[in-house]
Write a structure and sequence with these properties.
Oligomer: heterodimer
Helix content of chain A: under 10%
Number of helices of chain B: 0
Number of helices of chain A: 0
Strand content of chain B: over 45%
Strand content of chain A: over 45%
Radius of gyration of chain A: 13 Å
Distance between the termini of chain A: 36 Å
Order of helices and strands of chain B: EEEEEEEEEEE
Low-confidence stretches of chain B: none
Shape of chain B: globular
Largest sheet of chain A: 7 strands, mixed
Low-confidence stretches of chain A: none
Mean pLDDT of chain B: 94
Mean pLDDT of chain A: 94
Number of strands of chain A: 11
Largest sheet of chain B: 6 strands, mixed
Order of helices and strands of chain A: EEEEEEEEEEE
Shape of chain A: globular
Helix content of chain B: under 10%
Chain lengths: 113, 110
């Protein structure tokens, strides 16, 4: 069990640029979640996958956001045409299933300048 | 819409004090309540409480679920500076992913 791995750890980008983050979950976990956390807030749900199927997307996930988990293993989260309001910590988590707790990665901190 | 509310939002105590953090929830089809500790980055799991396991304890930390009052408390006894962190409460309900509260920022000063 190597834990949930996220890359990069930090990303600074100019407004309008596209960014992509990667998450590698714990290998035997079939569920993968993306959350966003801003200062003074708890993590807010964005989307989740069971294996390769994207089962739910939050209304927070605008059209500029897209997530994939092509082979049911790692996942990517892409933000197109970044805005300053996208600056946040993006957390990935995985779990064995619906009734299990989540294991979180260390997050990717995005700063849009 | 599912809701999780934590109180207080921040707390400063001296080493050795006992603290109680509160979490209340309004969700449909409650399944479980989880506590996480977040220091610098990743939230780390502390406890999961369900209808069949309403009280958990690990060292100086303990937690109780009150299903009647739709709430939970997290107790930390004999606090240490290493307990300084944000404590997050989250609820699993129905088929929805974890819903988190805003967290309680605990600062323990020597």
């Amino acid at each position: 069990d190597t834990g949930v791995s996220q890359n990069p750890r930090h990303k600074i980008t100019k407004r309008g640029q596209n960014v992509t983050f990667r998450c590698d979950p714990i290998s035997e976990h079939n569920r993968l979640y993306w959350y966003r956390q801003t200062l003074g807030q708890g993590p807010e749900f964005l989307t989740y996958f069971q294996n390769e199927a994207q089962l739910e997307k939050s209304r927070l996930l605008s059209d500029r956001f897209s997530a994939e988990r092509p082979k049911g293993s790692f996942s990517t989260l892409e933000i197109q045409r970044t805005e300053q309001g996208d600056s946040a910590m993006y957390l990935c988590a995985s779990s064995r299933g619906q009734n299990y707790g989540y294991t979180f990665g260390s997050g990717t901190r995005l700063t849009v300048v | 819409e599912d809701k999780v509310v934590q109180s207080p939002l921040s707390l400063v105590v001296h080493e050795g004090d006992t603290v109680t953090l509160n979490c209340s929830y309004e969700v449909t089809n409650f399944r479980s309540l989880l506590w996480y500790k977040q220091e610098k980055k990743a939230p780390t799991f502390l406890f999961m409480l369900t209808s069949s396991g309403i009280e958990k304890k690990s060292g100086r930390l303990s937690s109780i679920l009150d299903k009647k009052e739709l709430s939970s408390i997290l107790n930390i006894t004999a606090t240490q500076t290493g307990d300084s962190a944000i404590y997050l409460c989250a609820v699993l309900s129905g088929n929805t992913p974890l819903v988190f509260g805003k967290g309680t920022r605990l600062s323990v000063i020597a």
